[in-house]
Amino acid sequence: MEQNVIDNQKTSNYLIPFIILKNILRYMLIGTKFVLYECWIELYNSASYKADSVYRSVTMKDKMLEEGDILYEKTKSRVKKEKVYKYSKRTLEKLEIEKKNLQIDLQNAGATRSKVSHVYLYKVRQGNGKIITGTMNGFSKLDVNAYLINEGYEIYSIKTSPFIDFVYQESGLLGAKKMSTKDLIFWLTQLSTYLKAGLKLNESIKILNHQMKGNKARSKAFDAISYELLLGETFSHALEKQGNMFPPLLINMIKAAEASGTLIETLDDMADYYTEIDETKKQMVSAMTYPSIITLFSLAVVIFIMLYVVPSFTEIYSSMGTEISGITKLIVNISNFLKTKYLILLGSIFLVVVGLILMYKMVKSFRTSVQIILMHIPIIKNVIIYNELAIFSKTFASLLKNNVFITESMDILSRITNNEIYKSILYRTINNIVKGEKISEAFKDHWAIPDVAYYMIVTGESTGDLANMMQKVSEYYQSMHKNIVNNLKAFIEPVMISFLALVVGGIIIAVIVPMFNIYGNIQ
Question: Is 200 contained in some domain?
Answer without folding.
Answer: yes
